[in-house]
Design goal:
The structure is a single chain. By secondary structure, the protein is mainly α. It has one domain (about 5-65). Helices cover about 75% and strands about 5% of the residues. The chain has a two-stranded antiparallel sheet. A hairpin with a 2-residue loop joins strand 1 (about 65) and strand 2.
């Protein structure tokens, strides 16, 4: 595997983990294990927190973007 493939794989895995965590939270809500305010709070922290920023950084790095929206 080359460096680019490794970077893309890392980015996809990070995004997949983020999606899985969000799906787990929604499933807990649907199973009545989580109240609506807690779901919103946890999703907000997940989608605006360090895990999301790291996934975004890996994706930008793999795609060769210096900043969001700017492809090198």
């Amino acid at each position: 595997m080359n460096d680019r493939t490794t970077e893309l794989e890392s980015a996809v895995r990070a995004q997949s983990a983020l999606i899985f965590e969000a799906q787990t939270l929604v499933a807990a809500y649907l199973a009545k294990d989580l109240e609506s305010p807690a779901l919103i709070d946890r999703l907000s922290r997940l989608l605006n927190g360090p895990q999301e920023r790291e996934a975004d950084r890996l994706a930008r790095e793999a795609l060769g973007e210096n900043e969001p929206g700017n492809i090198a």
